[in-house]
TrEMBL record:
Domain Thioredoxin: residue ranges: 8-171
Family note: Belongs to the peroxiredoxin family. Prx6 subfamily.
GO molecular function: peroxiredoxin activity
Lineage: Eukaryota, Fungi, Dikarya, Ascomycota, Saccharomycotina
Function: Thiol-specific peroxidase that catalyzes the reduction of hydrogen peroxide and organic hydroperoxides to water and alcohols, respectively.
Keyword set, alphabetical order: Antioxidant, Oxidoreductase, Peroxidase, Redox-active center
Protein name in the entry: Thioredoxin domain-containing protein
InterPro entries linked: AhpC/TSA, Peroxiredoxin_AhpC-typ, Peroxiredoxin_C, PRX_1cys, Thioredoxin-like_sf, Thioredoxin_domain
Gene3D superfamilies tied to this protein: Antioxidant, Horf6, Chain A, domain2, Glutaredoxin
Alphabetized PROSITE patterns for the sequence: THIOREDOXIN_2
GO biological process: cell redox homeostasis; cellular response to oxidative stress
C-alpha cells in the first residue's frame, strides 16, 4: 500500500485498504459491502476527548444501523491497545464499542486519507511522531466519498451532526431536494434548483415559492 496522499474530494472513490482492527483484519470495501460507512479517526488511545467520542458513537450505533450505515474508527496504535481501551470506554461511558477500530500505528491509512495533524505541535506520540486529527468521511454504498470533515485534536465532534448530514444525503439521493441551514429530519426541505415549477407541482404538491430560486416543501419521510 502506498503512503502517498491522493487528493480526496467529494465524489472520489474511498481508497481501499487491508488493516488489522480491534475486531480482526478487514478489507475496507468488503467491510462496507452494500452499506454506507462512517470512517472517523482519533489521535490516540486512552485520551480523554477520544474516549467521550467513541462512547457517543457506540451509543448511537443503532441509529446508524437503521440508516444502513456501518461505523469504523481509526486510531494510531495497535489492535491490542484498542481492545484494552474499549474496556475503559465502556467503564466511562457505559457504551460497548461493537464496531471495529482500525489499528494504524504506522499511519499508513492516516496518510492515505490525509488525516495527519500538521498544525498542532502537541499532537504527537511518545516518539515525537505526528498523530491524527479527527477526520470524518461519509462513504456511500458505491464507495464514493460524500462528506469530509476535519476537526483538530482539541475539539470533540458533534455526533448529531454526522447523523444530520447522513439523513440529508440519503434523502437527497431519493428525492430531488436539498436541505437548508440547520435542517433536521422532519423539517421542510428545498426543491432542487433543477426542478421546474411545473415538475414541482407533481413532485411536491405542497411546495411554496419564497423566491424564484428558493422553493420549500414538506416531505413525507418514514422513520429511518
Ligand atoms: C484527546 O482525545 O483528548 C486528545 C488527543 C490528542 C491530543 C489532544 C487531545
Amino acid at each position: 500500500m502506498s503512503t502517498e496522499t491522493p487528493t480526496l474530494r467529494l465524489g472520489s472513490t474511498a481508497p481501499d485498504f487491508e488493516a488489522d482492527t480491534s475486531n480482526g483484519p478487514i478489507k475496507f470495501h468488503d467491510y462496507i459491502g452494500d452499506s454506507w460507512a462512517i470512517l472517523f479517526s482519533h489521535p490516540d488511545d486512552f485520551t480523554p476527548v477520544c474516549t467521550t467520542e467513541l462512547g457517543a458513537f457506540a451509543k448511537l450505533e443503532p441509529e446508524f444501523s437503521k440508516r444502513n450505515t456501518k461505523l469504523i474508527g481509526l486510531s494510531a496504535s495497535s489492535a491490542e491497545k484498542h481492545r484494552a481501551w474499549a474496556v475503559d470506554i465502556e467503564d466511562v461511558t457505559g457504551a460497548k464499542v461493537g464496531f471495529p477500530i482500525i489499528a494504524d500505528p504506522e499511519r499508513k491509512i492516516a496518510h492515505l486519507y490525509d488525516m495527519i495533524d500538521y498544525q498542532d505541535a502537541t499532537n504527537l506520540d511518545d516518539k515525537g511522531v505526528q498523530l491524527t486529527i479527527r477526520s470524518v468521511f461519509i462513504i456511500d454504498p458505491s464507495k464514493k466519498i460524500r462528506l469530509i470533515m476535519a476537526y483538530p485534536a482539541s475539539t470533540g465532534r458533534n455526533s448529531a451532526e454526522v447523523i444530520r448530514v447522513l439523513d440529508s444525503l440519503q434523502l437527497g439521493d431519493k428525492n430531488r431536494i436539498t436541505t437548508p441551514i440547520n435542517w433536521v429530519r422532519g423539517d421542510d426541505v428545498i426543491v432542487h434548483p433543477s426542478v421546474s415549477n411545473e415538475e414541482a407541482k407533481t413532485l411536491f404538491p405542497k411546495f411554496r415559492i419564497i423566491k424564484p430560486y428558493l422553493r420549500m416543501t414538506p416531505l413525507e419521510v418514514s422513520d429511518p
